[in-house]
Amino acid sequence: MTDQDEKEIREILKHAVAPQRHTELRRDLWPEMLKRLDQRPAPVPWFDWALAGLLGAALIFFPGAIPALLYHL
Fold first, then answer.
1. 3-state DSSP of 27-48
2. In this structure, are residues 33 and 27 in contact, taking their beta carbons and an 8 Å threshold?
3. Which of 27, 39, 68, 69 is deepest in the core (most CB within 10 A)?
4. Closest CA to 69 of 45, 58, 51
């Protein structure tokens, strides 16, 4: 790639990507983050419990799968 090609690519990129304006935050986000942390956690969906049950049953009936499962974790 020649120097002229690099200059052309830089110019194309400068025109394609607009410069960022107003990079400063308009407000402090930490108080809102603390509010979200204090909220009640989301409930666990029923299918997560069903999958955990199926995994437990599979490990009881097929104990040879335990090393393979631990290998993939």
1. CCCHHHHHHHHHCCCCCCCHHH
2. no
3. 69
4. 58
Exposure string (b/e) for 23-38, b if CB count within 10 Å is 16 or more? eeeeeeeeeeeeeeee
pTM above 0.85, yes or no: no
Residue 27: predicted pLDDT: 85
Torsion angle of the four alpha carbons 44, 50, 51, 54, in this order, in degrees rounded to the nearest 10: 150
Residues in the chain: 73
Q: Residue 3: enclosing H or E segment and its boundaries?
A: helix 3-16
Q: Quick one: pLDDT at residue 9? A: 92
Distance between CA atoms of residues 60 and 52, nearest Å:
12
